[in-house]
Amino acid sequence: MSRLISLQIVESSEIIVEGLKAILEGEGFNILAPMSSAAMLRDRLPQVAPDILLVNPTLLGPQAAEMVAELQSMRPQMPIAALVYEYVPAEELQAYGGVVDIRMPRNKAAALLHGLIGDATAAEPLENYELSAREMDVLTLIAQGLSSKEIADRLCISIHTVNSHRKNITRKTGIKSVAGLAVYAMLHNLS
Amino acid sequence: MKSKLFHGRQKMADLIAQNHNLILFMPRFGIPLGFKDKRVDEVCSENGISTELFLLVCNVCTYDDYLPTIDEIASARLAGLVAFLKASHTYYLEKIPHIGDHLKRIADQMEERYGAILYKFYADYQSELKEHFVYEESVVFPYLEELRAGSRRRENLLHLNDKHEGIEETLGDLTQIVYKYLPGNLMPEESIDVVFDILQLSSDFQKHYLIEEKIVMPYIHWLEGRNS
């Protein structure tokens, strides 16, 4: 299991929120306590720190686009998607990274949100759980306490490649911490 | 959402029937069992516990999507909050060596160097957790009490969420290691017991963090604003 993506919904209709929860839970999302107003969002966002925000633009009032830009500058890594079920002019939706229309087929909403977070792989079931030879090399070095940068230098690969191996190792083994991976490596005679 | 939350005029026993994990909180609040068919507010007042505090905690721990508003937190009598949190820590500190003893017995059955690394993993986890509790009890809780008393001193608190995630991750890894990667013929019953204990502890921890993240931290921020 990869880590769940925390999703903050900003929507005042309980029926819509419950519907979204039913569809998105089990698709890799952890749905945070929903917020129902722009004021609540502004107050709570820094503390709640979700991975992704899904907000009904009509709740943000006439200054919606400005507010979205402001939120985006507060948390540049957090995609903001619009939640739409009534007509919203296209130009007002430009500020958002994507649009979830409640008339979408159910699997499309999850795929869209995963796509925004650049986590397209998470939804795909894993078929091969065996570690590749290269992943075992990386794991051995993780277990020895090397950083990603050091592993990249040692194996003459880019740090990006190391991080992608690390991600796959965690997906395949279910183990996330360095200490846990060290135990795993030991039990598999990799160290 | 509001309509399904627990309230003071319900029977205490109904809360437990709905979420049996709440029974673990009774001793932490100092509420003895045997409360018959009394209402929540009656049981709380008999035991000198703020009903608002009790309900905030039970609701946060039962309804995942419940996020108390600042007004609810600010208007509640939260005098017993720190005592409750400390009692939770005490419970964990008793539980953790118990799991450690189980693991030690399993580790003793393994080839020595494997056993040693498994046990060390747990020992490291245990000390990380203790350190975190010490931080909360020596910095966060006294700061909260000071703020309650009207202090204007500002403490720069570490980001508790990050710490909680790290601690949670380690416990998750431990369960994976025990049930997936240790040899299966090694004390199967003991292994199942220990995994079950760890899972129970881990879900208890998650609730504890929710209390800190949804009640304690917003309360601290509110008090800071009030006192400035």
Please tell me about this protein's structure.
The complex is a heterodimer of chains A (191) and B (228). By secondary structure, chain A is of the alpha/beta class. In chain A, 46% of the residues lie in helices and 12% in strands. Chain A is built from eight helices and five strands, in the order E-H-E-H-E-H-E-E-H-H-H-H-H. Chain A has helices spanning 14-24, 38-48, 64-74, 106-116, 133-143, 148-155, 159-173, 178-187; strands at 5-10, 29-31, 52-55, 80-84, 98-101. A five-stranded parallel β-sheet of chain A has the order 2-1-3-4-5, with helices on both faces. In chain A, helix 5 (133-143) crosses helix 7 (159-173), helix 5 packs across helix 8 and helix 6 (148-155) packs across helix 7 (159-173). Chain A is elongated and about 60 Å long. The two termini of chain B are 33 Å apart. The interface between A and B is medium-sized, with 25 and 31 residues.
Characteristic terms for this protein:
heterodimer; A: 191 residues; five-stranded parallel β-sheet; elongated; B: 228 residues; mainly alpha; 0% strand; globular
